[in-house]
Amino acid sequence: MSAEIWPQPVLDLLATGDDRPVFEDGERVVTAIEMAGLVRRITAGLRAAGAGPGTAVALSLGVTAEAFAANLAAFTVGATVSGRSFDAGELLVAEAQLAALLATPDDGRPLLAAGRPADVARLTWTSGSTGRPKGCAQTYAAMSAAWAPYPDRWPPAIAELAPRLRRYLVFGSLSSQVMLEYGILTLAAGGTLVAARPPGFPGMIERHRATGSVITVGRLHQLVRSQRADPADLSTLRALMVSGSPLEPARLAETLDVLGPVVFHGYGQTETGMIAMATPGEMLADPRVLSSVGRPPDVHDIDIRDGELYVRTAAQASGYWNDPAETADVFRDGWVRTRDLASLDDRGYLHLSGRARDVIIVQANLVYAGPIERVLGSDPAVAEAYVVGRPDDETGEAVHAFVVPAPGAIPDVARLSDRVGRALGEAAVPRSIRVIAEVPLAPSGKPDKRALLAG
């Protein structure tokens, strides 16, 4: 691990960047030295408000230069930082509070990272589709060990990706893992963060002359169809980092054919960060790579136990916030249990074959089958309920449900869909609900969900 504590390398980069543009929002261009000034003022404001090591800061902010500076400032004072409310004693920073922080006079103190290595630096949250999102707790030691701000640590795939991020689109939340991680990579590579106004593919690429962006599988399918039907000018595009769920080889080949050599097909988890990535060059040179999610970098440890993938990365989370049971299940002796089924081929490429966890990824949101089954099963007309996921052009994957009716009852499909939506949210609503007489069984005697998918 570097002797520097996060986010010191980024603070140093900004302090020495002078007039180099680092954030663009419409006609407004913020230079490195201007961004450093914003960080300094917000840091002084946070200190004056009592924020420091051991305190909690929740950021409820949009995508602006000031919001990016607020993220860095909250880390600078050494707080535990989250993009959502998480602690009763937290300092909540929304737009009004941010304006007050910016009005705080400079306290003259040096802009030095104050985080303590063992303290939790950041909470990034898994999907709330179960009704209980989990906060992945990453320490300052872990964040300080990350490769993003250090070009000499970049794995080969990242070294190929980074120069393509000259104009990296940011949208959603600057507190999210992918936006912050690739945003820092962009700055370290000499690029500029560009606020997408409004977000949406392909318009925001064309409108902002973007060279790089993150995209989910569902939106990637939509972009490919759009380019076939009515092509937009994507001539500036150099890198699309696909997130959310793996792409099928045929779909990936089609995407490279339509969009060109710009797709970086990666695999990672909130708990670990990037685990593996395949570059466009690798996929075009060898079609066998299309069936993989890339090659894990040498700095990662990979172990496959009974078909299930375990990984160990320098910057991984250390557990779930206030959730010892889930922490014990996933974080084991320094390893992260991914709950994904995987294999490594003889060239070191990682192949995913399914999920040990019963989860469906809808527009990059984790939707758990169990809670949906329980909601469906609570309907008086349903005796049994089973939920599976299928690849879907719109959302990456989609939820499909199978229900066995209670004796003498006829399940109302519309009512069941409404029940799920009200209980778990729109992403969990099944794309289809099929009434079946009985569920097929595997040789073990357990319900055979693969047979349901094949039926």
Features:
single chain, 455 residues, alpha/beta, Rossmann fold, GMP Synthetase, Chain A, domain 3, 3 domains, six-stranded mixed beta sheet, five-stranded antiparallel beta sheet, 27% strand, ANL_N_sf, AMP-binding_CS
Explain what the structure shows.
It holds the Pfam family AMP-binding. Helix 10 links the parallel strand 11 (239-243) and strand 12. Helix 2 packs across helix 4 (95-102). It contains 15 helices and 24 strands. The chain has 455 residues and is an alpha/beta fold. The chain has three domains: 1-146, 3-Layer(aba) Sandwich (Rossmann fold), CATH 3.40.50; 151-357, ANL, N-terminal domain (Rossmann fold); 359-454, 2-Layer Sandwich (GMP Synthetase, Chain A, domain 3). The protein has helices at residues 8-15, 32-48, 65-76, 95-102, 140-144, 156-161, 177-188, 203-208, 217-229, 249-259, 280-285, 324-330, 369-377, 413-424, 449-454, and strands at residues 21-25, 28-31, 56-59, 80-82, 91-93, 120-125, 135-139, 167-170, 192-195, 212-216, 239-243, 263-269, 273-278, 301-305, 308-312, 319-320, 331-332, 335-344, 350-355, 359-362, 365-368, 382-392, 396-405, 432-435.
